[in-house]
Amino acid sequence: QSQLVESGGGLVQPGGSLRLSCAASGFSLENFAIGWFRQAPGKEREGVSCISKSGGSTNYADSVKGRFTISRDNAKKTGYLQMNSLKPEDTAVYYCAALYYCSAPGYASWGQGTQVTVSS
User: Fold this and answer.
1) Could you read off the pLDDT of 57-74 as tens digits, one per residue?
2) What Å distances lie between residue 8 and 1, 19, 59, 60, CA to CA?
3) What are the E-state strand segments in the chain?
4) Residue ranges of the chain with pLDDT lower than 70?
5) Coil, helix or strand at residue 55
6) What is the pLDDT of residue 118?
7) Cα separation, 59 vs 51, whole angstroms
């Protein structure tokens, strides 16, 4: 059974930081790119960031560029999303996915999500 599990979400004040983790089990995460997505109440799911299989290429949505940093540790079978300078509009359920490529559609596994709430 393949599985991705997100963790690290919670309640944080505007301007605060959180680090999300995406841990894989049952498959070789090093064979896949890792994407982060989010879905806010009443809105469609949107792409946030993606990192290539090797970690040599990353991309970010314009809304998070300069504030979020994606990374991975293939030895730990884990991906990360460091979120700084958080804003209320970042409030959403955050999901990670094992993707075949950042630059093409297709996924191998999808997590259940972790809630991030930014509020004073």
Assistant:
1) 999 999 999 999 999 999
2) 23, 6, 21, 19
3) 3-7, 10-12, 18-25, 33-39, 46-51, 58-60, 68-73, 78-83, 92-101, 104-110, 114-118
4) none
5) coil
6) 98
7) 7
